Structure formats: C-alpha cells, structure tokens
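Obj.: predict assembly geometry.
Materials: sequence records (below).
Method: joint structure prediction, all chains together.
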Amino acid sequence: MITKPRLLTWLGAPATEVDFEALYRAELPRIYNFFRYRVGEGQLAEDLTSATFERAWRKRDRYRRDLAAFSTWLFTIARRVLVDHYRQHHAEAPLHDAAHLTTDQTLEDLTQRQADFERLSVLLAQLADRDRELVALKYGAGLTNRTIAGLTGLSESNVGVILHRALQTLRAKWEAQP
Amino acid sequence: MNDDFLTRFRKPPRPEFAAALYQRISKPMQTPMKYPALRRMALILSIFASVPLTVLVFPSARTFAQGVLEQVGGFVFSVGPIDPSQVPGPLTIVRTPDSVSIHITGNTVSTANDPAEAGNLAGFTVLVPAYLPSGYVTGSDWFVIAEGQGTVVTSDYHDAGKNFLFINQWQVGAGDLKPYNREAIVEVTVRGQSGVWLPETASPNGNQALVWEENDKTYSLISNALSLDEMLQVAEALGQ
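Observations (raw structure tokens):
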C-alpha cells in the first residue's frame, strides 16, 4: 500500500516540499517579464503575475515533477491566466491593449528606455498573437526554444522559424520609425 | 535590432510588489496544510473505498459474504460483511480528526480540464449531466483513474455548502468485479436499465449511491445529501 507521503509524491508533491520560496524568487521575474512582453508595462502585468502565482499555489498538489519542470508548469498556468483574462475582458484584446500607446505620447515624459519599451509594445501588439506569445516566452521570460516548444505544442524548429520571422518583422518596423 | 535589443527591456518586478505577493501566497503556506485536494480526492474516490474501509476499521467484519444480492456492472452488492481478500478496491481512506490518509495499490490518476479531455484519456465517451440539482455547480477537474484493468472517470459537483455529488463512469476491466456491502439495497430502473439505489447507511462514509450499467459502463452517482429522485433526475440528464 502507498501511504500518504508516497501518495503526495505520486500525485505530485506540493510545492511546499520543493522549497516554494526559492522557486518563487527564481520564477517571479520570468513570469512578470513574460506578461510585460504580452500586455505591456503597467498594473496589468503585475495583476496577471499575481494571478499566476496564486493559482499555482492553489493547484500545487497537481504539480508533478515527473512530468514537467516547475517553470514549465508555471508557464502553463501563466498562459491560461492570460487566456482567461482575455476571455473576461473581450474589449482588451492584445492589439487593443497597446493601441492607445504611441511613442509621441511617452517620449517626453519617460526615460528613453521606458519610451523604447512602450514603442516596442506597440510593435509587439501588431504581431500575430501566437508570435507575440513566443517573443514574450523567449525574450521576456528567457525560455529556450525547446521549452517553448513543449509549452506550445509547436516543434522546436517551428519555434525558431517563427521567432526569426517575428524578429525580422519587428526589426523592419522599428527601423522604419525614426 | 537583435536578440540583445529585445532582452534588454526585461526588468525585475517592483520589490514592494514582489514582497506583497509573496506575503499573500505564503500565508497559506505557513498554516497547517489541510490537504484540500486530498480531501476532495478522498471524497471523489470514496465509493471505491467504503468496503475496504469497513473491513479494515472493523476487524469483526472479516467474514465472507453470505449471499450476493445483486450485480450491477462491476459491482457486486451483498448484505453482510465481505472477506477483505475478496476486495480488489485500490483505495482505502482512513480519516482521523486531524488527517486523511489514502492508501493506494498501484493505480494512476490523471486530471483533465473538461469531459472531452477526460474522454480522450479514458478511451471512451464521457457523459455530462445537462441537469444539476439547484445550487450545485461543476467542480474544477475531471479525474481519470486506472482501476484494475479498467478506467474510471470521476467528476465532482457541489453546492455552496459541503454537499457533494460525484459521477463515476467506469469502464470495467476483465475480472474487476468489486464487492460492496450495504445494509439495504433497493432495485430501481435508471435510464431504462436495471440499477440499485443504496440509501445512506451507518458506514464510515455515510453516502448514498445510485448505480447502473449501460453500454458496458458502470455508472455510479454518489452524494451525501441528494434524494433518490434527485439522483435519478441527474442520471436521466446525462448525455454527450
């Protein structure tokens, strides 16, 4: 018979047993930047980050170490949090999120770095949703193509191709704007 | 523009945000774990455990069943105690005031987000109730459990209180007959099929169940509160 401790491992050890605090410190910046690259700067990125960790904690018993790295599991939750957000806020589709942002509005008030990110957010919002997600996972969260492939169901080579094309598109648009 | 250009916009979250979020989620981390998932799992799977639990908790019950009253699908119902060696149930739930222990013998559990995913995992079409009793809502997960040589899909429903309803859909494997001991067994007709109604008994689980076989599947509805009529309404409303 399998007793409770074994059952916990078998069903998926709760994150308390894998040092949740250390995981939190390691994963928080990645999740946060994933959302920044998906929805732009601001309160929404923090709200979605919070929702991800809160949901992860509630579902910690479902995390199975034999199936996925913790970060992969966490990003699976993050992606669902974002989908849920868009379902609940139809008016805030990804493109619309950044549609109000213009470089003209922000350049005078923000630092150059902030202005550049706002400008990048505008360009990211013009990408196809799938492409923007891959860019956010790659360049916001710093995931490898292999991990992204595992998360999205795309092949690793497809991820590389899509990212390459997205980068080319961003580069062309960035350079087209003075 | 290159990779560096895109990655240089990363920035750490605000420290006050990071601290506040950690404090918020760490509060439950620091409280004694109440095993909500385990408790739910225990309830969900209680139908598989009630007999072995009875047998294990009450050694005096360890005599062989005197007579089989009814067989419905994978369940064999009898009045009177059952020999534990005849109980193939994979799960035993032991509750104390402070804990819930589940003993498992070699089964695997998967979770699915919806009936379609559960059906894909189980390998058969999973039915969904078009009707639920007033106040009841669908739980968050579908559990697909390897049960002997077969597979069980379990879904949970609950009201705002602590009342629950579980719907188990069991593809019975060869030789997976499961003996059940209840104090009273009522023969009923469910969806045009012969079935049994198991009123609440003084068993440790204290639940009531409606069981029938249909299209080579054994269906069981288990609740702590619903009446036979309410269970029948749910059963009749099951569909794809």
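Conclusions so far: Residues 26 and 75 of chain A are 13 Å apart (CA to CA).
To do: check interface contacts against the pulldown list.
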